[in-house]
Amino acid sequence: MALDVSLFLATKAAPVKETTYVVSDRFVDNDGKSIAWVLKPVNSVKEKEIKQNCIKGNTFDRVSYIEQLTAETVADPNLADATLQDSYKAYGKTALLESMLTSGELNKLEVKALEVNGLNTPIDQLVDEAKN
Asked: Looking at the predicted structure, is the pLDDT value of residue 48 above 60?
């Protein structure tokens, strides 16, 4: 029995869920409460583009892949905002994250970004998939 194709139309698809996550206690609102960042999974087209950007010959640059995926996963704050980039004198989303966050904070965010994107699989498996 064939599935009813109308059940798969874009209008029937549930919206992609956003996740809030406190990356750092250093960023607080006017009441002194930690600000949660908004993370949103990237679509498969963007993820494929990131993978392709990270293949150099027969080598997959997993560090760059995770950095770029993380930057694209952050929906808020807007890492492309010129004022934000100017304040850190860091231009580009990945460069901004590296300047904004401590190494521990960035590592936590990268782990969360992989989780949000459903990429909790071992990195070796991701490398094999990227090569194919």
From this structure: yes
Does the pTM exceed 0.90?
no
Q: Which of 67, 74, 70 is nearest to 27 (CA)?
A: 74
Q: Sign of dihedral through CA atoms 80, 83, 85, 91?
A: positive
Could you give the CA distance from residue 114 to residue 84 in angstroms, rounded to a whole number?
A: 24
Q: Of 89, 95, 87, which Cα lies nearest the Cα of 70? A: 95
- For the chain, what are the domain ranges? 5-131
Q: For domain 5-131, which CATH number applies: 2.40.50.140, 3.40.50.410, 3.30.2220.30, 3.30.1050.10?
A: 3.30.2220.30
Candidates 66, 15, 11; CA nearest to 40 is: 15
